[in-house]
Amino acid sequence: MTAVPTSWFLLLSAILFVIGAGGVLLRRNVLIMLMSVEMMMNAVNLTFIALSRHLSSLTGQIFVFMVMAVAAVEVAVGLAILIELNRLRATTDVDDVSSLKG
Amino acid sequence: MPIEIPTLNFIALAPPLIVIGTALLVLLFDLAVTDKRVLGYLGLVGVVIAAGVSIAMGPRPATTFQAMAISDGYALFFNLVFLATAGLSILIAIDYLERHDLQRGEYYALLLFSASGMMLMAAATDLIVVFLGLEIMSVALYILAGFNWRQLASAEAAMKYFILGAFASAFFLYGAALTYGATGTTNLNQIGLWLSGGNSDPMALVGLGLLLAGFAFKVAAVPFQWWTPDVYQGAPTSVTAFMSVGAKGAGFAALIRVLRSGFGDSAYSADWALAAAVLAVLTMTFGNLAALPQKDVKRMLGYSSIAHAGYILVGVAAASESGVRGVLFYLLAYAFMNVGAFAVASALERRGEFSTTQRDYAGLSQREPLLAVAMTVFMLSLTGMPPLVGFWGKLFVFRAAVEAGMSWLAIVGVINSAVSAFYYLGVVVQMYMRAPAEYSPRLVGEESDAKKPAAVNLEVAIGTAVLLAMLLTVVLGLWPGPVASLVTMMPLG
Amino acid sequence: MIIQSIWLAIAFPLAGLLFNGLLGRRLGRGVVGIVGPGTVALAFVVGLFAGLDLLALPAQDRAIVVTLWNWISVGSFRAGMSLLADPLSVLMVLVVTGVGFLIHVYSIGYMEHEEDRLYARFFTFLNLFIVSMLILVLADNYLLMYVGWELVGVCSYLLIGFWFRRGDDPQDPVRLKDGELVPVPANLNPADSGKKAFIVNRVGDFGFALGVFLIWTTFGTLNFADVFGAAPEIASGTVTVITLLLFVGAVGKSAQLPLYVWLPDAMAGPTPVSALIHAATMVTAGVYMVARSHALYALAPTTSLVVALVGVITALYAATIALVQTDLKRVLAYSTISQLGYMFLAVGVGAYASGMFHLTTHAFFKALLFLAAGSVMHALGDVIDIRRMGGLRQKMPRTYWTFVIGALALAGFPLTSGFFSKDEILAKAFEFSPILWALGLLTALLTGFYTFRALFVAFWGSARDQELFDHAHESPGVMTWPLILLAGLALFGGILGLPQILGVDHALAGWLHPAFADLEGEGAEAIHHGLSAGLEWGLLGLSSVIALLGIGLAYWFYVANPGWPADLAVRFKSVFKLLVNKYYVDDLYDLLFVDPGKALARFCAQGIDNAAIDGIIDGGARLIVQGGAWLGRLQTGFIRHYALAMFLGVIVVVAYFFLR
C-alpha cells in the first residue's frame, strides 16, 4: 500500500487555510469568524503533522500541541470578549461594532 | 533504559520567570487584599526585581531549554525596555483604574503575564517559543484592551484586536510551518545554518513572507496596521500606554532575531531588507499622514505609533549591526517618551470617558504648567527634536540606513519627521497658545461639573510616571552616551 | 611704551559696550553714565600716550604695527587682526575719543528723559560706535578697515533710528518727556531715515568692497604698507580704477554728491548722534580713507581731480541748499556736507595734511554747533524749526555764546580755527587751479551767510512763539560744559596749523609729516614753497573779507531788514522753490530708484512670495492634510475591511518573495 504523498496533505491544508481565511473575510457573525480562524489554525496543524511525518521529525508534532493549547486559550478569551460585547450591544454581527474609525 | 532528564537552565530565563511568579502572586493576593492598589505596587516590586536581575546577569549569552531560548545581551536589553514600560504602565494604571472604577487585581496579573510573553519573544531562538511568547503577550493584551467593560469602545477594541490578532497569528503559524517544512527545523540557528549552507527552497521563502506578515501585524506596519488606531483609542489609556511600546517592541525583538539569526546569512537577506525598507516607507508615511487630521489625542498617538514603527523598520532594513543597535536605542527612547505622553493623556482623562481630544489640552500651561512642560517634552522628543532622546533614536536608525547605502530611506524618514512635527506641535500649541476650553458635559449626570475645564487628575503614582518619563527623556537626550555604548555591548547571541 | 598696547584704546570702549549692554539696564543710569564716558576717556588717554610715544621715536620710525592675532589665513589670503599706529591714525584716535568723550558727557544730560532701558541702550550704541570707528582708523589693512567701515554704518543706522517708534502714527504715543507726549517733526521719521542712511551707504560700500577686491587681485595683499610699497609698479589705469572705487565708498560714507541724500535725513537721530557720527567722526571716514591711501591717490591724478571736483561742487551745492533750510539741524547737516566737500577738495589737490587739519577743526566746531542746537532743542521740547525760535540769547546765554563761537569758526571768521584750516585749503586749491579756489571762496561766502542767518533768526530778535519762549531754559552743566570746552577748541584749534607766513611752525603738518613723508613736497616744507608771501597774505585777507561779508549780509537781511528775505523769495520764486526742494534730488531718486525698487519688492513679496511660493508651500501642506483625511477614511471601522486589507497584504508580500 503506497502512502499518500505529503504534497497532497500540504495541498489539502492550504485549501483548508484559504477556506478559513475566506470565512474570516466574508462572514459577519463573530462566532463564525472565530471558527474560521480555528479552521486556519487547524489547517496549519495538518501541515505540521504532514511535514513531521515527511521529515521524520517530532518537532512539528510538538508544535501542534502548542498550537492546540493556544487555540483553546484563544477560544476562551474570544468567547469572553464576545459575551462582553453582547452584553453592551445585543448583536453578533461584527459590522455593528464599528464605532471606532477615521 | 535510563530516562535522561534534560538539564533545564531556569536561571537563564530568570527575568520572565520572576515576572510570571509575581503575576501569580498578584492573583493569589487578590483573594485577600481589598485595596487593589497594593497589587499594583506588588507588581511594581516584581518588575524592579526582574530588571535588577536582568542587569546583574550581564550580556554573557546562555542558552537554555535545549537551545529554544537564550539569555544574551540582546534579550536582556529588551527585558529592560519591557520592564520599564511595564513599570511605568503600572504606575499609570494604579491611579487611572481607581478613577475609572476599574480597579481589579487581574489587571496587574494580566499586564505582568503579557510582559513575560514579550520577554520570552525577545529570548526565543525557536519558532515554537516565539509563537508561545507571542500568544502569551497577545491573549493578555486582548483581555486588557477590553478591560473597561462598561464602555462599548473598549469591548469593540478588544474584539477587533482579538479577531485580527488571531487572523494574523494564523498566518504567522503557517509561515512557521512552511519554514519548518523547508528546513526541517524550527530552531532559528539551525534554520540559519541550513540557509547559509547554500540551500534554497521556495517554501522557505513563502514561510518567511508569512512570518514577516505576522510580525508586521504586531508592530503595526502597513498594511497590517488597521487595528492600531481603533484599539489604541478604545482600550483603557493605561493599557494603550503599555501595548503601544510593549507589543511593538516585542514584535521587533522577535522579528529582528528571526531575520538575523534565521534568515540573515542567506541568499534572502537582501530580499527581506528591501521588503522591510518598502514597509518602512509605507508605514511611516501612512502613520504621519493619517495622524494629521486627528482630533482625539489617543487616536493621534495611535497613528503616530504606526509612524514610529516605520522609523524603526528603517533600522531593520539597514540589516546591519548598527541598524540593530539603532533599533534598541530607539525602542528604549520610545518607551519613555510614548508612555510619558500616554501618562499625560490619562491624567487629563475625565471620569467616565475613555479618551481626550485636543481641546482638553487647551490652556494646560496655565492650569498645570508642569504637566504641560512634560507633554511638550514628550511631543518634541517624539518629533525628534534635539537634544531629547527621540532625536538620538532617529539619528541612529537613519545613520544605519545611510551606512547601509539606503540614503533615500533616511531622507524619506527625515521628511516624515518634519511632517510629524505638524501634529505633535499642534498639541503644544493647544497647551500654550489657546485659552482653556469651556467644559461641556458629554455624559448625562455630569452637569454639576459644567462650565469647568477638564479636571486634571495628577495623583502620586501617575505623577511619578510622568516625572520619571520626562526626566529620562531629557537626561538620556542630553547624555545619550551610556545607553549608546550599552547597546553596542548587547549583540545578538 | 603704551603704543604697543594701542589696542587698549579699542578694548576700553568695548568693555564699556559689553558692560552697559549686558548690565546697564539693571545697574541704573548713574552707572551707565559713568561707564560710557569713562571708558571713552580712558581710550583718549591711551591715544594721548600713544601720541607722546610716537613723538619720542625718530620721524621715520613713527609707524607701529601691533599684530594681535592672525585673523584670517586661507590659502595665500592673509589678514591680520593688526593695528597701525602712526601720526595719521593717532590723530584720528584723539579726535574720535576726545570729541566722543565730550559728546558722551553731553548725552548724560541730553538723554536724561529717556527710560532706563533706552538710556542704557543709547550708551551701548555710542560705545559700539566708538569701537567701530577706532577699528576703522587703526586698521592696518583694507579688510579690517572695511570691517570698521561697515560697523560704523551699522551704528549710524542703529542710532539714527534710535527713536524708531516715533512717526509710526502721527497720533500715537511718541516719547514721554517729563510725562508729556512730544510731537514728531513731520519730515523726520527715524526708522525710515535710518533705513535710508543704511541703504544709500550700501551703494557706496559696494564700490568700496569692489575696490578692496581689486586691490587683492592686483597686489595679492590688503596690507597698507605692502600695497603702498608695491603701488608704483602697478599700471596707472588699474590704480585709477582702484582709487575711483574706493572713492565711491568715501562718497557714500562722507555724504558727497550724488550720495549725500541720507545725511540731512539722519538728523532724525538724537542730536548727540548727529554731532558725533554725522558731523565730527564717521562722515569724515571717507576723508581719512583717502588720506590713508594717499600713496595710491598720488599715483592717480585723474582720480584726484575727480575727488577735488566732487568736493568743491558738493561744497557749493550743499551751501546753496543750506541757505533756505528752516530746520536748525538740517542747516548744520548741509553745512557738514559742504565742509566735507572742502576736505575732499583738499585731499583731491594733494593737500592731505590740510584736509586732515580741516577735518580736525571741523570736528570741534561742528560738534559744538550740533550740541548747541541740541541744547536749544532740549530747552524747547524738541522744537527745531528756527522760525519758532527767536530771542533765545537772553534765555540761554551759554548756549548762545558757544553757538556764536561755533558759527564764527564755521563761517571762517579771522583767527578762529575754521578760518585757518579753510584758508589753507583755499590756498592749496588756488595753487592747483584758481577755478577751484573761486568756487571754494563763493562757498565760503554762502557759509558765512547761512550760518549767521540761522544764528540771527534763532537767537536774536524777539520771541516768535511766546509759549515756547517761556518754556525755554538753559541746559544743565553736564551739557553746557562740553559746549564750553568745545568752544575753546573751536576758537583756538587754529593753533594746530598756523600759516607759515605768521612765522610759526605748522604744528599739525609737522606732526603728520612722517605719515605723508613718501609724498614729495607735502608736509611742513610744502607750506614754505608754492605761493609767494604776498599772494598768501592777499588770499588770507580775501578770505577774511569774504567771511565778514557773508556775516554782514546775514545781518543785513535778517536783523537790519527782516522783510527782505520774504521779498527775495517772492521775486526769485523759481530759484527759491528749487532750493527749498533741495534741487528735487530726493524726488528724482524716489522716481528713479526708490519707487521702482519698492514696486519690484512688492511684486516679489506679493506676486512671487505670497502667491507663488507660499501658494506652493501652503497648497502642499493642505494637500498633505487632505491626504491624511483621505487615508483616515480608509479606516472604516469594519473588521472585514481590515482583514481583507491584511489578506491582500499577505498575498503581496508572499508574491514578492515567491516571484522575486
Overview of the structural elements:
The complex is a heterotrimer of chains A (about 100), B (about 500) and C (about 650). Chain A has about 100 residues and is mostly helical. Chain A has a single domain, classed as Helix Hairpins. Chain A contains three helices and no strands. The longest helix of chain A is centred in the last third of the chain and has 30 residues, at about 60-90. Helix content of chain B is about 70%, strand content about 0%. Chain B is built from 19 helices and two strands. In chain B, strands 1-2 form a two-stranded antiparallel ribbon. In chain B, a hairpin with a 4-residue loop joins strand 1 and strand 2 (about 70). The longest helix of chain B has about 30 residues, at about 150-185. By secondary structure, chain C is mostly helical. Chain C is about 70% helix and about 5% strand. In chain C, strand 1 (about 65-75) and strand 2 form a beta hairpin. Chain C is globular, with a radius of gyration of 29 Å. At the A-B interface, helix 1, helix 2 and helix 3 of A face helix 5, helix 6 and helix 9 of B.
Quaternary status of these chains?
heterotrimer
Return the structural class of chain B: mainly alpha
What is the molecular shape of chain B?
globular
When the domains of chain C are counted, the total is: 3
What is the residue-averaged pLDDT of chain C?
86
Low-pLDDT windows of residues of chain B:
440-451
The major β-sheet of chain B equals:
2 strands, antiparallel
Order of helices and strands of chain B: HHEEHHHHHHHHHHHHHHHHH
Q: Main sheet of chain C, how many strands, which sense, barrel? A: 2 strands, antiparallel
How many helical stretches of chain B? 19
Radius of gyration of chain B: 22 Å
By DSSP (H or I, 4+ residues per run), the number of helices of chain C equals 27
